[in-house]
Amino acid sequence: MRTRAAPIALAAALLVAAVLTVPGRALAADTRIQPGARIVRPAGCTLNFVFRDAAARLYIGTAGHCVSGVGDRVATPEGEFGTVVFRILRGDDDFSLIRIDPAFYAEVNPAMRAWGGPTGVTTADTTGIGDALLQYGYGIVYSTTEVTRARGGILYNDNAMSYHAEVPAIFGDSGGPVIHAATGRALGIVANIGGHLLNGPTVQRAIELLAEAGIDVSLATAGFTPPA
Question: What is the pLDDT of residues 155-171, one digit of tens each?
């Protein structure tokens, strides 16, 4: 990871400003299948990023611990929409991939709720300690209002495999998306939560794990305007 002397106080100020811009952001309407959407089965968790393969099939991710295994059917509050085709739960590798039923492609939106993006995928040489992060999830209590579902945080460190951050997160946020506030790039997946500290696999790592399993996908991107 590239480090730089970004004062934590400044990062915190940027974080507060980012959170305050949520109500005024002009983004596409929410859909039931997009980064930040809620799932209720197999577990109460949050979806992360949308992916596509060379055959134009669509997928979306969540955490590995949010499903029991390959073949699980996954449901939002509106009903089932896809099948788990990959799952790993080993150390910081905590990720699962859901193949979306073609019948629901019209309900897929690659844009992260509230914030927009992702514009691409971060790498460790494009991020720095103290960088502002953006998250959206259905953690308990936080899930009660739109304003508290959209939250900001600060990056502690990351590498090609995992990241550590201070972001308000709790049970139910698992599987959710984390993006880099300055660029809108997809950084990581909410996995291990402890108070306001969390860590999980990077999106770069998730794509590598999928490729090793013979699932070649690319990230579906969306427009993004950095928070003022």
Answer: 999 999 999 999 988 89
